[in-house]
Design a protein that fits this description.
Two copies of one chain form a homodimer. Chain A is an alpha/beta fold. Chain A has six helices and six strands. Chains A and B meet through helix 4 and helix 5 of A and helix 4 and helix 5 of B.
Chain lengths: 259, 259
């Protein structure tokens, strides 16, 4: 397996840093090839702007058009091209980050915003009566799997079905379905550590053991059963889920998971 | 009314830029005071790191602790302090941004990550048997209102109840509830423009009219009825919504809206 770890935390000695290091050593010891994108160490540029698109950028920047043109002509900046190449190289992508304000840190969002360009991650494939582009189950990154490894300050109960933050599956849906599944990546159930504002050195051995176990079983873990877009579940082009496809009583984001 | 507009788009001539300019002129013409945080023009630093917390940052960075300490001692960087002051000055905060990968652009997330520090936006208030800090309806920014003005590339049907992206209310919940309502801001229903990948100059007059109308009725618009945390709807400290509080059949994020 070829594993890319995309890691976003400013402190190497943090829990996130330890989990990243453990992922590297565990996967390498198991015989896998590992590459790491340590976004803070790379001083990753987070904000999309005209400088991302080389000489192809026109007087008036249009992010989708100009990123697609730069992708097509090889004019994207070297940092972005390197990340796209890593994504194409990888079979498995592990994202290690703290949940800040219910989503990823800005530096990681900036990795998505800049690397997931038009014609690479979106704007791929034809539109027809039976197909609305290649996305949600198809796309440039099909054949790859990803896993979110997330540390969460608050307790698990706050992220349960009736918890005030909403169910963790819903909190992560815009990332897991909207960012990862969109360009074709299958998404494994996340590894979530709760209450990490109160995690101590004494808790770490148990945490490490659980994480190693997840890492060593990545290849046999079933992905989340998101519905594929172009294979009969949705009306085209409204992309409404057809009536009656879901289990009774299911609604919201959960509609887009089978069974 | 004192209105702060937080704006995140790299292109001044974009639809987002036009909507921001229109918000300034419309609100000023109506007699309101307006300030703008134009994050791209400010070259806003998106990534939280130790440099944000001055000399208070220890050898090992802990983001919550160190941001709280820097807030308490006035050691936050001037850019962050200026934004906190603007938030305290404002009655109304308008966020103007494109929906990129189902959430805000990285530069705006970086504004949240850096400005919403511990002891300012979270870690506020006491914990007791009846109170879990001051948040979700209470907090430093209570008494203020906010509105998201969002441009969305895809069509509205994709964001409807059965649409493949999930309902727009759920897509925006982590921002509206998780980021804005958390420190006490009341959130008005969003102004969402769909299909903006295909919006042309000919469409703009109608768009502008609708936006002006929203801007001129901000003060009389009812906020989203998110449930307050410490006023009987939730068990403390699990923060589970008490059984039977919701309309039959409602689940997920929607549980946390009354009525």
């Amino acid at each position: 397996m070829k594993a890319l770890i995309v890691y976003a935390h400013p402190e190497p000695k943090s829990l996130n840093g330890s989990l990243k290091d453990l992922a590297v050593s565990t996967l390498e010891r198991a015989g896998h090839e590992v590459r790491v994108s340590d976004l803070y160490a790379m001083n990753w540029k987070a904000a999309v702007d005209a400088a991302d698109f080389g000489t192809g950028a026109a007087d008036r920047l249009r992010v989708a058009r100009d990123s697609g043109r730069a992708f097509d002509t090889g004019a994207l900046t070297p940092d972005v091209r390197a990340e796209q190449e890593k994504l194409l190289w990888a079979d498995m992508i592990v994202f290690q980050f703290p949940l800040w304000w219910y989503t990823m840190p800005a530096i990681l969002k900036g990795w998505v915003d800049r690397v997931f360009t038009y014609h690479f991650a979106y704007g791929v494939g034809e539109h027809s009566d039976t197909k609305y582009g290649e996305r949600f189950g198809e796309g440039t990154l099909a054949g790859r799997k990803a896993l979110l490894s997330v540390t969460v300050g608050g307790p698990e109960s706050h992220y349960s079905a009736r918890g005030i933050n909403g169910p963790i599956d819903d909190v992560l849906f815009p990332i897991q379905h909207g960012i990862l599944y969109y360009p074709g990546i299958e998404v494994l159930p996340p590894f979530v550590l709760y209450g990490t504002d109160r995690t101590t050195a004494e808790d770490y051995p148990d945490v490490a053991k659980a994480w190693e176990q997840r890492l060593l079983t990545l290849e046999s873990t079933e992905p989340i059963a998101f519905r594929r877009q172009n294979f009969g579940d949705y009306e085209i082009p409204s992309l409404h889920l057809k009536e009656g496809r879901e289990p009774a009583g299911r609604s919201g984001f959960g509609l887009h998971v089978r069974g």
